[in-house]
């Protein structure tokens, strides 16, 4: 029997299918070449149906990015729930935080590749910052987790606090995210003898720990 609740669930399910199909096409072909018609065709619906949910491609692309990073936030929440966060020192929590980037590389290379294209798309399209607010809200989750590290370090002194929190957060976020993204898209030096991507990323993690840990 029809109900508003059932209708809302069906609409949410359809919306999710459209976003997932968009993400799939974007990671395969790039964002610019994919049209709204391509997405509708891949989802098995008419273009009018797609526009009923998303009136512009820009808004659709932003929702795809927001959805996928929201999934990462949920995975991080579950990972933190399973760990003894309360019993960790700031240094241990910092290592746990950095491990999250390595896990992102191992398990979500498609998202890292998409995010690289998304950043380029945003720059070229000149999308207003207001429209990007939901996306940045998901990314802010990294900042929230880092803030916990910094606050704990003020008490146990296992991580430096002589450097401003915003500077430490920006540096770690940009270096770690840039590194895992470059490996994900293949923009790395590839010697004939081969290379160990995870070993190199673990080295970067160790360097970050050496830079900011005390003692």
Explain this structure to me?
The chain has 215 residues and is an all-alpha fold. 76% of the residues lie in helices and 0% in strands. Helix 4 packs antiparallel against helix 6. The longest helix has 26 residues.
Secondary-structure map:
Layout: H1 4-29, H2 36-43, H3 47-53, H4 57-82, H5 90-107, H6 109-125, H7 133-156, H8 165-185, H9 197-212
Helix pairs in contact: 1-2, 1-4, 2-3, 4-6, 4-7, 5-7, 5-8, 5-9, 6-8, 8-9
Beta-strand percentage range:
under 5%
Largest sheet: none
Give the helix level as a range of percent: over 70%
Order of helices and strands: HHHHHHHHH
Task: Count the DSSP helices.
Answer: 9
What integer is the average pLDDT? 92
Query: Radius of gyration from the CA trace?
Result: 20 Å
Which stretches are low in confidence, meaning pLDDT under 50 for 5 or more residues running? none
**Count of DSSP E strands?**
0
Judged by helices, strands and strand pairing, the structural class is mainly alpha
End-to-end gap: 66 Å
Overall outline: globular
């Amino acid at each position: 029997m029809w109900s508003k609740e059932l209708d809302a669930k069906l609409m949410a399910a359809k919306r999710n299918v459209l976003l997932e199909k968009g993400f799939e096409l974007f990671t395969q072909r790039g964002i610019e070449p994919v049209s709204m018609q391509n997405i509708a065709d891949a989802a098995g619906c008419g273009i009018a149906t797609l526009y009923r949910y998303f009136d512009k491609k820009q808004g659709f692309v932003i929702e795809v990015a927001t959805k996928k990073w929201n999934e990462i936030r949920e995975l991080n929440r579950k990972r933190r729930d399973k760990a003894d966060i309360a019993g960790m020192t700031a240094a241990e929590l910092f290592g746990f935080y950095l491990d999250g980037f390595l896990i992102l590389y191992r398990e979500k290379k498609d998202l890292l590749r998409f995010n690289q294209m998304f950043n380029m798309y945003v720059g070229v399209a000149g999308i207003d910052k207001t429209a990007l607010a939901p996306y940045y809200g998901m990314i802010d989750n990294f900042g929230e987790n880092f803030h916990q590290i910094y606050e704990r370090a003020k008490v146990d002194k296992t991580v430096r606090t002589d450097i401003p929190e915003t500077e430490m957060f920006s540096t770690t976020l940009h270096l770690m995210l840039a590194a895992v993204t470059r490996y994900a898209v293949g923009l790395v030096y590839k010697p004939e003898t081969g290379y160990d991507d995870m070993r190199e990323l673990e080295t970067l993690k160790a360097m970050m720990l050496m830079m900011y840990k005390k003692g």
